[in-house]
Write a structure and sequence with these properties.
This protein is of the alpha+beta class and 383 residues long. It folds into two domains: 2-139, no CATH class; 154-329, no CATH class. It is 59% helix and 9% strand. It is built from 13 helices and nine strands. The strands form three sheets. Strands 1-6-5-4-3 form a five-stranded antiparallel β-sheet, with helices on both faces. Strands 2-7 form a two-stranded antiparallel ribbon. The protein is globular.
Length: 383
C-alpha cells in the first residue's frame, strides 16, 4: 500500500507540474509577457475566468456541487440550497470582476474614460467564458505538444522576451538570419491554426486595452530536426539536444540587437535600450570602444549597482552589458533596429544545398516573387 501511495503521489505531482506548465504556456501565448505593473490584472482575469467555468460546471452538474460540499468543511446550516445560491451569485457577478480587471490592464493614462468604462466592465460576460475556454484548450494543446516532442526525442527550451511595439516582423527576420548563419535551413511559416485561432477570437471579443497585447499573427521558424515558435512573449525552441543547443546559442546572441526586450521592468528595459544604442553608436565609429563609450559604460555600471530588480533580470542586464562591450572591443558593427517591420530575406541556393539571407529591400515585392509570411506587417505587442 505504501508503494502504491508513493506511485500515485509521484504521478499526481508529475501531472500537476505538466498542467501548470501547460497553463503557463497558454496564458503567455494569449497575453504575452507584459510589464510587472500589468501582470496582477491579467492574472486576475485568467483566474476569474477559470473560476467562473468551475462555478458554472458545479451549478449545472449537481454531482460536482455535492462533491465540493462533501469535501469542504462547512457549518451545519450550509446545505445544497445555500451552495446553489452561492454558485449562482458567483456565476452572475464574477464576469464583472473579469471585465474590471481588463479595464485596469493599461496604465493610468491609457484606460478608457466615461461611459467606455461600463462597456469594458460588462465585456467581462464575454471575456470570462472565452478566456476560461481558451486556457483549457491551449493547455490541452500544450500537453499534446509535449507528448509529441517526447515521442520524437525532442525537448523544449524557452527564452522569455517582450517584443517592442511594431517589431515582431523584424525580430522574426533577425532570428531566421541567426539560424541560417549557423547552418539551419530555416523557413518562416504561419503558426498552426490551433495557436493562431485563440488569439484571433480574443482579439475580436476583447477591447483595445487587452487587444493591444496581442500580435495580428504568429510565425514559426522550421528547419530539419528543429522548430522555433516565435511568440510576443516567448521563443520556444524544440528539437534534439544538439540542434536545440546550437539554435539557442544563435538566438540568444542575436536578441541583444533585435527589436525585443529580455526584461520586463521599465527600469531594466531602459538600460537594455541604452546598451543597444551604445553598440550601434560604436558600430558607427568603426566598432571601437571610444572614451565616450567607456564613460557611458561606467554610468550604466553605477545604475546596475543600485538597480532594485529581480536577480534574473539583473543577470540578464549584466550579460548584455558584457556582450555589447565585447562586440565593441572585437570591432563588430550593428545596424540600428528599424522602428517599423522590415521584410525578412528569402532563402535560396538549392544547387549548393545551403541557405543564405538575401539583402533586404524596403521596396514593394516584385510581381511573381514567392509569397513570404513576413512580407505583410504584423502589429507587435505593446509594453
Amino acid at each position: 500500500m505504501t508503494i502504491l501511495v508513493s506511485v500515485f503521489g509521484f504521478a499526481g505531482r508529475f501531472a500537476g507540474d505538466l498542467l501548470t506548465s501547460a497553463l503557463g504556456w497558454a496564458s503567455s501565448l494569449l497575453f504575452g509577457r507584459v510589464p510587472r505593473s500589468h501582470q496582477v490584472f491579467l492574472v486576475l482575469m485568467m483566474a476569474g475566468s477559470f473560476l467562473w467555468l468551475v462555478l458554472l460546471l458545479a451549478l449545472v452538474l449537481p454531482i460536482v456541487s455535492s462533491t465540493l460540499l462533501a469535501a469542504t468543511p462547512h457549518p451545519p446550516f450550509v446545505d445544497q440550497a445555500w451552495l446553489a445560491a452561492a454558485l449562482l451569485l458567483g456565476v452572475i457577478l464574477l464576469p464583472l470582476g473579469v471585465g474590471f480587471a481588463g479595464y485596469l490592464v493599461p496604465s493610468q493614462g491609457e484606460r478608457p474614460q466615461g461611459a467606455a468604462i461600463l462597456v469594458e466592465i460588462v465585456r467581462g460576460y464575454l471575456l470570462a467564458p472565452l478566456i476560461g475556454g481558451l486556457l483549457i484548450f491551449l493547455a490541452g494543446v500544450g500537453i499534446a505538444r509535449k507528448v509529441r516532442s517526447k515521442r520524437h526525442g525532442w525537448a523544449d527550451v524557452h527564452v522569455p522576451i517582450v517584443v517592442k511595439p511594431g517589431g515582431y516582423d523584424r525580430m522574426v527576420a533577425d532570428l531566421r538570419d541567426a539560424l541560417v548563419d549557423v547552418g539551419f535551413a530555416a523557413t518562416a511559416e504561419d503558426a498552426p491554426w490551433v495557436l493562431t485561432l485563440p488569439a484571433q477570437l480574443l482579439t475580436r471579443v476583447a477591447g483595445n486595452n487587452v487587444r493591444q497585447l496581442r500580435p495580428d499573427r504568429l510565425i514559426t521558424l522550421s528547419a530539419p530536426d528543429l522548430n522555433v515558435g516565435v511568440y510576443p512573449s516567448d521563443i520556444a525552441i524544440s528539437g534534439a539536444v544538439a540542434e536545440r543547443t546550437r539554435a539557442r546559442a544563435a538566438i540568444l546572441s542575436r536578441l541583444t540587437w533585435t527589436s525585443a526586450h529580455l526584461t520586463i521592468s521599465a527600469e531594466s528595459q531602459e538600460i537594455e535600450d541604452e546598451l543597444a544604442g551604445l553598440g550601434i553608436a560604436g558600430g558607427a565609429t568603426g566598432g571601437r570602444l571610444t572614451a565616450d563609450a567607456s564613460a557611458r559604460f561606467a554610468a550604466i555600471d553605477e545604475r546596475l549597482m543600485v538597480l532594485a530588480v529581480p536577480t534574473d533580470e539583473w543577470d540578464i542586464l549584466f550579460r548584455l552589458r558584457l556582450q555589447v562591450e565585447r562586440d565593441l572591443l572585437a570591432g563588430r558593427r550593428h545596424k540600428p533596429v528599424a522602428p517599423e517591420p522590415v521584410p525578412s530575406p528569402d532563402v535560396v541556393d538549392a544547387a549548393a544545398g545551403s541557405v543564405r539571407g538575401i539583402a533586404r529591400s524596403d521596396g514593394p515585392q516584385q510581381a511573381g516573387a514567392r509569397a513570404d509570411p513576413l512580407a505583410a506587417p504584423v502589429t507587435g505587442s505593446r509594453r
